[in-house]
Amino acid sequence: MRAEDLAAGRFDGARIESGIVDWDTLDRATLYSGTIAGLRQEGSGFRAELASAKARLAQDNVPLSSPTCRAHFCGPGCGLSSAAHSARARVVALDADSGMVTLDLADAAPFRHGELRWLDGPATGLAARILDTDGSLLTLAGRLDPSLGEGLRVRLREGCDRTIATCAARFGNAVNFRGEPFLPGNDMLAHYPMPR
Predict the structure, then answer these.
(1) Same domain flag for 87 and 52
(2) Residue 34: how many CB atoms within 10 A of its CB?
(3) Domain that holds residue 102
(4) What is the pLDDT of residue 1?
């Protein structure tokens, strides 16, 4: 475990188990299981905050109404296949300071608002949000690691702006839309009858 890996978030959400083992019989029992909720550097070491299964009780599991879709694109509730909306490419050029990456794709427009996941190099496994595209040029959220270079493989997944129009027209998936785009807004609460 390196400090760079901790700072990059590679261990965020990692599963933790601790327990006891009887070395004579190899019987084992788990005393605690949970996930890493947060990591921070402290002196020459680090401190991890753990979250047990009880942390899920604090979550609000009742979905609130919203005009945009609550489903994660190609995730549970969406119904679309991640493989059908993904592509692989190689990095042709990279500007770490501006967060811009040029790929060996003719047109990266379908991946606007999507995700880029590094398959090679020092950032292997990490993902970045795609803010914008222009031909084969992508603008990523956040600053890139300067040690990333040309020739690295990436996996791209298309993005969705979570509107009913995009869901219906672009993906033909309006039946799985998880939002309420036609509910009246808060301004309807302020309406009252006027005398004539």
Answers:
(1) no
(2) 17
(3) 83-176
(4) 62
